[in-house]
């Protein structure tokens, strides 16, 4: 496959190139296991000497085709699918950061990721420093410790919709000998390719725009292959010293630029088993086929809705980087000139109660625990996704108690605006 083709073409053709007489559509390999002619042939797979499929808890050909497509879109070296975005973020960090390690985390990340790292991974002995992504370089540099293993942020934060300053984050991470991991769920590789700006590893909740039709939960990890693990071997013993569970193989030596994904597959997938079902990978692939077309329309619709809300007297504020006076407009122009995504946030002047009243009167736009989908939807983070957070944590995450997250879908934008207009009459 020629990975220099344009993004819109890769969406359709990367990852699966049928040979003569093979199915045009990506087949679903609905099989837990794979057959070998000799005992030795299978034994060599377990030694990681030969590559091949043996058990779908670790790898499946349908999943790998979809991962390769995503890898081509991100411009990466290797990729894998996971059962959810949460699993992707957990694997991405845990693959290089074990008990005793430390993570620097942007305060504006998705509530689920914030909980995963600051509560659940803390129970595993992983420390975390939360920083405001708009901090100065000095403040960012001051967050690093001897045991820091990675820096984690979101390219466009959910739901704060602020844009990460990739170059500032990559520079600080690399100066301290650790990779920058970026969750690129909201812009998708169509609007932003974090590897171009120094990110080393990208994660996705494919549940959102990539699937795009709210049909299947899934995640993905893509590695740029650029981070030189061996140059920082003391920090990353898991990649740079022999793994006794594979007869002493050293991933960074044996697998070079693919070492990180190989380790996450053969070690974490083997032991934790958060594989994506091949059937779900098939749906993710269908979503990817139209991703470039959909992202363009999502952005165009969201821009019009943002402009409409901005001009309305009942609306207190609107966050959307496509608006010229948005604080993240310049960063968005630099890192994602085609647009950010279809998600915006705003609040009604009356605050929390009016925001809720407005949402309850929407007809076309539905209240769901979902975002970045073909159908327009809303959510009130303070009552829903971020319910577990204290007032201070909400403020730190950039979540105003009146904040409404509006995910602008692919409907005719006039109908979306008409629905908002009729619901605004009730506040
Ligand atoms: C939804 C989301 C996740 C979690 O993904 P799931 O597929 O729901 O597990 C992680 N990061 C971001 C930015 C998200 O929007």
Structure description:
The structure is a single chain. The protein is built from 17 helices and twelve strands. The protein has 427 residues and is α/β, with parallel strands linked by helices. The strands form two sheets. Strands 1-7-6-5-4-2-3 form a seven-stranded mixed sheet, with helices on both faces. Strands 8-9-12-11-10 form a five-stranded mixed sheet. Helix 7 links the parallel strand 4 and strand 5. Helix 1 runs antiparallel to helix 3 and helix 3 runs parallel beside helix 12. The longest helix is centred in the last third of the chain and has 20 residues. It is globular and about 70 Å long. The mean pLDDT is 95. The structure holds pyridoxal-5'-phosphate (PLP). Pyridoxal-5'-phosphate (PLP) binds next to helix 4 and helix 5.
Discrete helix count: 17
Helix vs. strand class? alpha/beta
Uncertain segments of ≥5 residues (pLDDT<50)?
Answer: none
Strand order of the largest sheet: 1-7-6-5-4-2-3
Q: List cofactors, ions and other ligands.
A: pyridoxal-5'-phosphate
Give the helices and strands as they follow along the chain.
Answer: HHHEHEHEHEHEHEEHHHHHEHEHEEHEH
Task: Please indicate the percent range of residues in DSSP E strands (runs of 2 or more).
Answer: 5-15%
Radius of gyration: 22 Å
Give the beta-strand count: 12
Reported for the largest beta sheet, the result is: 7 strands, mixed
Look at the structure and give the mean pLDDT.
95
Termini Cα gap: 54 Å
What form results from the Cα inertia axes? Answer: globular
């Amino acid at each position: 496959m020629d990975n220099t083709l344009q993004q819109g073409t890769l969406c359709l053709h990367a990852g699966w190139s049928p040979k003569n007489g093979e199915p045009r559509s990506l087949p679903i390999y609905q099989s837990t296991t794979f057959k070998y002619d000799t005992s030795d042939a299978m034994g060599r797979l377990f030694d990681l000497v030969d590559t091949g499929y043996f058990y779908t808890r670790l790898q499946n050909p349908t999943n790998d085709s979809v991962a390769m497509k995503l890898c081509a879109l991100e411009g990466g070296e290797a990729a894998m699918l996971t059962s959810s975005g949460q699993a992707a973020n957990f694997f991405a960090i845990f693959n290089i950061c074990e008990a005793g390690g430390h993570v620097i985390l942007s305060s504006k990340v998705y509530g689920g990721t914030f909980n995963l790292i600051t509560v659940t991974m803390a129970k595993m002995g992983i420390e975390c420093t939360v920083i405001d992504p708009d901090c100065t370089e000095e403040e960012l540099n001051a967050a690093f410790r001897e045991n820091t293993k990675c820096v984690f942020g979101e390219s466009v934060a959910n739901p704060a919709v602020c844009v990460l300053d990739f170059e500032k984050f990559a520079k600080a991470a690399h100066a301290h000998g650790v990779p920058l991991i970026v969750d690129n769920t909201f812009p998708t590789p169509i609007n932003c390719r974090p590897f171009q700006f120094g990110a080393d590893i990208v994660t996705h909740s494919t549940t959102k725009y990539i699937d795009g039709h709210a049909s299947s939960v899934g995640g993905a990890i893509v590695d740029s292959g650029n981070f030189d693990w061996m140059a920082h071997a003391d920090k990353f013993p898991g990649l740079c010293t022999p793994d006794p569970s594979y007869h002493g193989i050293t991933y960074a030596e044996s697998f070079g630029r693919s070492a990180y994904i190989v380790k996450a597959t053969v070690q974490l997938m083997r032991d934790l088993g958060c594989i994506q079902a091949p059937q779900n990978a098939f749906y993710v692939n269908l979503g990817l086929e139209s991703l470039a077309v959909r992202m363009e329309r999502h952005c165009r619709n969201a821009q019009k809705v943002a402009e409409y809300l901005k001009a309305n007297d009942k609306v207190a504020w609107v966050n959307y980087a496509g608006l010229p006076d948005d604080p993240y407009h310049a960063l968005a122009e630099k890192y994602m000139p085609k647009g950010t995504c279809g998600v915006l946030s705003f609040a009604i002047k009356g605050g929390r109660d009016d925001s809720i009243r407005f949402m309850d009167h929407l007809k076309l736009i539905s209240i769901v625990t979902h975002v970045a989908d073909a159908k327009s939807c809303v959510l009130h983070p303070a009552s829903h996704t971020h319910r577990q957070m204290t007032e201070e944590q909400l403020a730190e995450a950039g979540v105003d108690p009146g904040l409404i997250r509006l995910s602008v879908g692919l409907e005719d934008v006039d109908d979306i605006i008409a629905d908002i207009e009729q619901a605004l009459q009730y506040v």
